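It is worth pausing here to work through a concrete case rather than discussing structure prediction in the abstract. The textbook approach is simple: state the sequence, then state the predicted structure, then interpret. We follow exactly that order.
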Amino acid sequence: MNRMLILFFALLISGSPARSDIAAEALLSAGRVDVAITNLQAQLRSDPNDARAYSLLSRAYYSLEHWDEAVRAAQKAVALEPANSNYHMWLGRAYGEKAEHSSWFAAIGLAKKVRSEFERAVQLDNSNLRAQSDLAEFYLEAPSFLGGGKDKARAQAKRIANLNQSEAHWVLASLAEKESNWPAAEQEHQAAIRASGNQASYWLNLASFYRRRGRLDEMENAIAQANHAQMNDGEAWVDAAELLFRSGRNFPAAAQFLQRYLSSNATVADAPTFQAHYLLGMILEKEGNKRAAADEYRAALSLASNFPPAQQALSRLQR
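Step two, the predicted structure:
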């Protein structure tokens, strides 16, 4: 059982009142997004000014890939607490995903909002590492007419270095890759691993780089290193499985990573268990085990009944 759910149930048993936001966060970490949304909507009916509930609701819709609903809920959170850095960061992320799934003309306007929200998040709290990293990534990816630029990304890396050396090296690696300086990119990824104290997530960043360069044997070796490295949570197992799946490599290992994650007490909201079930289903389907794949798609939908990829996958198998 997920450790956050254990805490939540312990509070119930003890008779102590559990805050609704703590309960919702535990549900999201357990991947029970349908229940989380129902509870958060009930909470907002009783208290329409609960900014944290709106932010959690936005994150729930975000995990379901319901970008319009994610944006609306995040906008309400920001309107209620405009000085909250994390709320601006999540609104920027929701705008970004909506932009990726919009027409070119609509995406232009949304991209400007992404930059505005990330910059505001950093202004409000310059120690918010995730917001700092999101802003650096925006500068790397966006064209100059939308406020992006390599010089901005390089300057952002210097600011990040004051907070986290490994993350700064990741930004510099991404910048070197943008400039087609493959040796420098590889060196920066390796420096990030060393600076992080051998964290799995930075091994996986290196593995992703190898995948993009078509160096798939080295990608698998980096994933193996990640498997034996320091893991702050179980999200790395999901990321490793997805890398293998997207590369068409070592499906049995990818399935084992996901099974380990799903049976662990290290599930997190950033890697929802319903998405892990869906990915496992995709892997099993590729291996030809359609019955087991369908079971995984059903498991995903039992937690997130409105998750379109799982709905479509199950419908495909049932035709």
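Step three, interpretation. DSSP finds 18 helices and no strands in the chain. The first helix runs from residue 3 to 14.
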